Structures are given as C-alpha cells and as structure tokens.
TrEMBL record:
Protein's recorded name: MAU2 chromatid cohesion factor homolog
Swiss-Prot/TrEMBL keywords: Cell cycle, Cell division, Chromosome partition, Mitosis, Nucleus
Gene name of the encoded protein: MAU2
SUPFAM superfamilies according to UniProt: TPR-like
Species, as recorded: Anabas testudineus
Location in or out of the cell: Nucleus, Nucleoplasm
TM segment ranges: none
Lineage, highest ranks first: Eukaryota, Metazoa, Chordata, Craniata, Vertebrata
Pfam families on file: Cohesin_load
Length: 598
C-alpha cells in the first residue's frame, strides 16, 4: 500500500525535475519542458497534482510562447480545479492572477475584472494574495483611466493591511493612492494623505532596504508634486533628501531574510529601477530650472543604466523611463541649439512607441508637442501649428494642454495675422483670471506671452507690466530661462524707447544667464541688442565684440539648421495622424526659411 502511494510521487517528481531542467537550460528548451508536464496527465494524477500541473503549463506557455489559447485553457482548468481542493491557496490565486494578466493581454478586460474580484473575495484569509490581487485590480483600473475605482481599491487594501498588522504594505497602498490622486489633481486629498504616509514611513521599523524604498516612493511623490506646480526652488530640499536616500539604498545589501508577516512580501521597485527614477526626476528639475548641462549629465547616466538593465529585464516601466528622459533631453537640445540631435532623438521616441501601443497612447501628445517645438526652432510655423493642434486633440492632461496652448500662442504671435485665433487662445490662459492650472511656471510663461504680444503691438508700457510680473514669478522659483527671456525682451523695449542705459541693465544679465543655461536663441538675441546698444553709446570696441559674438551664434545656428533640415527624420514634421511612421524617406536638402536665424 505504502509503495503504491510513493510510486506516483516518484514519477511525478522525475517528470517535474526534467521539465525544470529543460525550462532553465540555456537556451530554454520550452517544447521539451511542455512535453514533460503534459506527460503528468497520462498517470491520471490526484486533483492537487492535476491543478498544479495545469498552472505550470499555463504559466510556461504564457511567459515563453505565443500559444495564448492553450495557456488560457490550462490556466482556466487550474483555477477551476484548485477551487475544489481545500488549503490550496497558492495554486488557486496564482492561476487567477496569471489568467487575468492573459485576459488583459488579449484585450478581454471584462473577463479579467470579475475573475480578480472573485479571487479577492475568497482570499481574505491569505494576506499576501489578498494584497497582491487588490494591487493587480487597482492597476487594471488605472490602465483603463478609471482612477476613482483604483483609489477605492487601494483604500480597501490600506485598511486591510492595517488590520493584519502590516504597516509597511499599508504605506505602499497609501502611497500608490497618493500617486493616483496627484494624477487626478485632487490636491486637497493628497496633502493629508502624504502627511499620514510620512508619519507611517518614519515610524516603521523593519528591513532597512524596504524602509528606504518607502522613503524614495514618498519623496518621489513630493518632488513630482512640486515640479508639477512649477516650484523649482521650493522643491530643492526634498530633491536633496531623495538623492541622499538613493545613495543610502545603494550602500545597503539585499537581505534574504523573509519578513515574518506574509503581507509584507512586496517591493515597490527594484533598487536599480529606483536609481533611474531618481536620475529622471533630477533631469526634470534641471530642465525646468534651466540647468541644461546638468540635465544632460544626468540623462547620459540614466540612459547608460537603462541600456544595461534592458539587456536583462524587459519590464515595460524601463521603456517608459527611457521615453520620459528622451522627451526632456530633446527640449534641452532645442534650447542649446542642437536641433539635428533633437530630431534624431524624436525619431528614437517614435521607434520606442512603435514597439508598444500603450506607450504610444500615453505619449502621442508629448511626441507631437516636441515636433511642434522643433518646427518653431526651424521656422516651419505652419507645421508647428499642425503639430500643436494634433497634440491638443490627443491630450486630456491639463498642464500639458496649457503648455501646448502657450506655445501655439507664440506661433500665432510670430505669424502676425492670426488675431482671432490668438485672442481665443489667450482668453483660455489668462494669468490674471481663472488660470486653468496651479503651475507657477506655466502662469509665469503666460505673463511672458502677453508681454511678447504687447511688444509686437507697440504697447510698451503694458508689455513692461506683464514682463515684470514674469520676472517676479521666475525669480521667486529660479526659473532661469523665463528670467533670461524676460530680461532680453525688456532690454529690447527700453532700446526701442531710447533708454539705452536701462536697456543695457537688462541685456547684460540676460546674456550672462543665457550663457550659463546655455540658451542659444537668447544669446543670439542679446548679442544683436548689445551690438546696437554699444554702437548707440559710442562703445566701438564693445560693439565690435558683440557683433563678432552675434556672427558666431548665427553661424552655429545656421549650420545646425541646415544639418537638421537635411535629415530624413525632418519629414516627421508632416506626420499628424495615426501611429508614428515606420520609415522616413530622405528629402533633398532644407526647405525652410533661415530668415529667423539671421
């Protein structure tokens, strides 16, 4: 009798051993692994072995092959059989979890949701799985842009974690909820939630890496909250804490000691991903503040780290990080006068988006915005308008919408004959009345746009009022680019009014700041003004020096302009519909006007 019971265990363990050997071979021999697992059913095994084998087959087929229908069939059997077996939680809930992932991959979200809800309902006595399934359903709602349902589930998870004595996982649920509330701009709910999270994180005594990772999550939310609000100076203490925190984590060794509470078996992000994320928010800060060389340095570090990680890890979040880094560095390149490089990086973003429809859906508006900015830099105003109009159609993000409208208004001002459209736009971004977002930076930019329009209309006193408001706001938060732009425009106004001394007082610091950023367009503008100013003041040597600087900047911009417009990627400026074009045809030389540069 005893030998009869042992016999099936021996054959089962042998087949399982072979299957695992083939799965972990280099390269993996998946077909042989599947054959070994399928052979288990020839022995008519008991329900526990039958359910586990269906799960193993479903998992291997899902992760290593494209045979999703067969994977689904095995996972459905594992889920069905395991519900009839007592105390078989791991198989039951892992089957539900993987099966719901497969449903989502097949765009069967309406099949995934009830499955996860049922699994959540029956997993309340299994803390690890209950929490994991709550996170999974919350993520599914988030991907569907149903942030209210996702927040509700994360709230349920936080309360459950508190009841089962896991303050660590409670903090993870609350921080995740805080992240979604920030996305929804529910700032009134975010502040008390972040305060509570801060207290929980500081009071929690546990694994040092887990504690520091909670602090990184908490500080990333705080930093992005400040940056969303355009508060570049106010964010510095938080950013410094975040950078110190990631340094601490990088010195800690991963302990293999498992937490005593199964509800604590979660990690927010791997340590390496957190490092890239901290580089990313540092780049965001440097770009907003106008420290573009620093932004370049951290982008290079982050992209190098990402390339290493992507060799071993195909996590979608790495591609998202890469796209966001490229988006920021492209804007830096356009400011520093490296349009050709910016265009090639825009093409790189297109290629990344071609590989992932979800990435394209989330970044299409940003991609068209970047193309619009590139079009302005090469003086293709009709294309810039078409790109910004496309971006406005694709975005629901209020800050991005405001940023696009501000840039589109600058296009209409330059064209000089779009008064009706321009006034319609300016009414929607009036910095004095019902400004659509709370961003300090965008409101300061809206004042600048008003000042620019008043300047072109010859209403100089009104222009000065708007520009002084921009200066006041940009100085308060160290917005260096806006400060430089406002100073040079004020200098131009004083020059036109014949107040050369006051003009000089504006243009000289504008030039110094533009050189520090460096902002090539403001340097070009400032050097032209300094040349005329010094000539008017009789400073022949200074006038000659400024003329030489202006000539150098003009030549650099002209060469870059020709290089950019000669690239086959320049044809992207005509793309305004559908997914990014797969192949970009070369064209014969530049077709755009260089007048704006000279």
């Amino acid at each position: 009798m005893a030998s009869n019971v042992e016999a099936p265990e021996r054959w089962y363990l042998a087949l399982l051993g072979f299957a695992e050997h083939f799965r972990t071979s280099s390269p993996p021999k998946i077909r042989l692994c599947v054959h070994c697992l399928q052979a288990v059913f020839q022995f008519k095994p008991p329900q526990r072995i039958e359910a586990r084998t269906h799960l193993q087959l479903g998992s291997v087929l899902y992760h290593h092959t494209k045979n999703s229908e067969l994977a689904r069939s095995h996972l459905e059997k594992a889920w069905f059989i395991s519900q009839q077996v007592p105390q078989f939680e791991d198989v039951k809930f892992e089957a539900a979890s993987i099966l719901s992932e497969l449903f989502c991959q097949q765009n069967l979200v309406d099949s995934a949701k009830p499955l996860l809800r049922k699994a959540i309902q029956i997993s309340q006595q299994t803390p690890y799985w209950h929490c994991r399934l709550l996170f999974q359903l919350a993520q599914l709602h988030t991907l569907e842009k149903d942030l209210v349902s996702a927040c509700d589930l994360l709230g349920v998870g936080a309360e459950y974690a508190r009841v089962v004595g896991s303050e660590y996982t409670r903090a993870l649920f609350l921080l995740s909820k805080g992240m979604l509330l920030l996305m929804e701009r529910k700032l009134g709910e975010v502040h008390p939630l972040l305060t509570l999270c801060g207290t929980i994180v500081e009071n929690w005594q546990g694994n040092p890496i887990q504690k520091e990772s909670l602090r990184v999550f908490f500080l990333v939310l705080q930093v992005t909250h400040y940056l969303d609000a355009g508060q570049v100076k106010s964010v510095k203490p938080c950013l410094k804490q975040l950078q110190q925190c990631i340094q601490t984590i990088s010195t800690l060794h991963d302990d293999e000691i498992l937490p005593s509470n199964p509800a604590d078996l979660f990690h927010w992000l791997p340590k390496e991903h957190m490092c890239v994320l901290v580089y990313l928010v540092t780049v965001m800060h440097s770009m907003q503040a106008g420290y573009l060389e620093k932004a370049q340095k951290y982008t290079d570090k982050a992209l190098m780290q990402l390339e290493k990680l992507k060799m071993l890890d195909c996590s979608p979040i790495l591609s998202t990080f890469q796209v966001i880094l490229l988006e920021h560095i492209i804007m830096c390149r356009l400011v520093t006068g490296h349009k050709a490089t910016a265009l090639q990086e825009i093409s790189q973003v297109c290629q990344l988006c071609q590989q992932s429809p979800r990435l394209f859906t989330n970044h299409a508006a940003q991609l068209h915005t970047l193309l619009g900015l590139y079009c302005i830099s090469v003086n293709c105003m009709d294309n810039a308008e078409a790109q910004f109009t496309t971006a406005l159609r694709l975005t629901t993000h209020q800050e991005l919408w405001t940023y696009i409208v501000t840039n589109l208004a600058s296009v209409y001002i330059r064209e000089g004959n779009r008064h009706q459209e321009l006034y319609s736009l300016l009414e929607r971004i009036n910095p004095d009345h019902n400004f659509p977002v709370s961003s300090h930076c965008l409101r300061a930019a809206a004042f600048y746009i008003r000042g620019l329009l008043s300047f072109f209309q010859g209403r100089y006193n009104e222009a000065k009022r708007f520009l002084r408001e921009t200066l006041k706001m940009s100085n308060a938060e160290d917005l260096n680019r806006l400060t430089a732009c406002s100073l040079v425009l004020l200098g131009h106004i004083f020059y036109v009014l014949g107040n050369h001394r006051e003009s000089n007082n504006m243009v000289v610091p504008a030039m110094q700041l533009a050189s520090k950023i460096p902002d090539m367009s403001v340097q070009l503008w400032s050097s032209a003004l300094l040349k005329d100013l010094n000539k008017a003041l009789g400073n022949t040597i200074d006038a000659h020096e400024a003329a030489q600087m202006h000539q150098n900047f003009s030549q650099q911009l002209l060469q870059d302009h020709i290089a950019a417009c000669s690239l086959p990627e320049h044809n992207l400026i005509s793309w305004t519909d559908g997914p990014p074009p797969v192949q970009i045809q070369a064209q014969n030389g530049p077709t755009t006007s260089l007048a704006s540069l000279l």
